[in-house]
Specification:
By secondary structure, the chain is mostly helical. The protein has one domain. Helices cover 69% and strands 0% of the residues. 33% of the residues are buried.
Length: 356
């Protein structure tokens, strides 16, 4: 299923039995209408995956590509929420233990979103030393050049540090991989449609979150390779995308790149070029056209990095809201009596804890 360092044995997404067994009589078959709904959903997923295929390897893990990937994921989660509503499944008949499991999985996704947001915030904080360095480099004072070097050192130290919240994403993703087994839903055509649609959502989610985690953690050791059967219409697009992206990430890490994220790597390359020139406070050579050009390049790269992270942060927030809304949609669809409503308070409290 995957190649993490510490693989877990596969687990069914419904270890407590078929939650749809009470929904309709045995022998349920997908009607043409249901098949049309499923095929349309999967065709949309396939198209989104094709749009994520970069035109060149240089686009992989650029902030613009990562933003597009997160936007795609958000749209897919919104689509599955719409599908749940359109199918009009009587959620009140589902096994209570499955509902708890669903809430647990969605909570894990919210945890991942929060980890990504914290990492983007941490990287954004690193832009402050860069801007301070650029401010000092606008002067011809050797004293200010020395100060600029200090700010560049602060930047490298900031971006080289590791976020413990990102490290926790590895184990969360391992757990989510264990939920990929597609359950057999024999007695409900609507249940079969939902499970097949949810499978594609889970695969896309785990893949994109795995790529982001590798990029933010600075390691490809636990980058996941998901094995998807070619019976799904979106499988060829997914396999091509996964193979290209994962291979390129591993190549970049093996090459000793400062970062696999393109904009960070660009800033670092300019800093490396600039640093020896201004180190030690200067001299007449500092006023050369070459130096001014390098400083200008650093300013442009820093601005592009800042803008890219802002856009990506907004998409991560959007994904968080999509997952949160999907939880609320499922909970609001439950037609429980007062006792069961009270039992669901725990699930709602989990969401509040994650949000705050």
């Amino acid at each position: 299923m995957s190649r993490p360092q510490d693989p877990h044995p596969p687990r069914s997404f419904f270890p407590f039995g078929n939650p749809f067994r009470k929904i309709s009589p045995k022998g349920s078959r997908k009607s043409p209408q249901l098949l049309a709904v499923l095929h349309a959903f999967e065709a949309t997923v396939a198209e989104r995956l094709r749009k994520l295929m970069p035109k060149s390897k240089d686009e992989i893990l650029s902030l613009s590509w990562m933003t597009l990937a997160m936007k795609s994921l958000c749209e897919t989660h919104n689509d599955i929420r719409t599908l749940i509503i359109d199918l009009e499944l009587p959620v009140s008949n589902w096994d209570d233990k499955w509902i708890d499991l669903y809430l647990d999985i969605s909570t894990k996704l919210l945890d991942i979103c929060n980890a990504f947001s914290s990492e983007l915030s941490r990287l954004n904080q690193g832009n402050l030393p860069l801007k301070c360095a650029l401010h000092n480099l606008n002067s011809v004072s050797s004293k200010l050049f020395v100060r600029a070097c200090s700010f560049l050192d602060d930047w490298r130290q900031q971006v080289n540090s590791r976020n413990p919240r990102i490290e926790k994403c590895h184990s969360i993703l391992d757990d989510l991989v264990g939920s990929l087994d597609l359950p057999k839903v024999k007695n409900s055509a609507k249940g079969q449609v939902l499970m097949q649609a949810m499978y594609s959502v889970k695969v896309e989610t785990i893949f994109i979150c795995s790529v982001f985690t590798a990029a933010f953690s600075g390691s490809s050791k636990k980058l996941l390779d998901l094995d998807v059967a070619d019976v799904y219409s979106w499988a060829p697009a997914f396999i091509s995308l996964q193979n290209l992206v994962n291979e390129e990430i591993r190549v970049r890490f093996s090459s000793g790149n400062f970062s696999v994220m393109s904009e960070l790597e660009t800033v670092d390359a300019v800093v490396k070029e600039l640093y020896p020139t201004i180190q030690g406070g200067g001299g007449d050579a500092m006023e050369t056209e070459s130096l001014l050009k390098t400083v200008e390049e650093l300013g442009g790269a820093t601005e592009k990095l800042s803008q890219g992270m802002d856009l990506l942060s907004k998409e991560v927030d959007g994904f968080f809201q999509a997952v949160l809304t999907s939880r609320d949609t499922l909970l609001s669809a439950m037609r429980f009596d007062d006792k069961n409503v009270n039992d669901r308070v725990v699930g709602r409290n989990i969401v509040k804890q994650v949000v705050h």
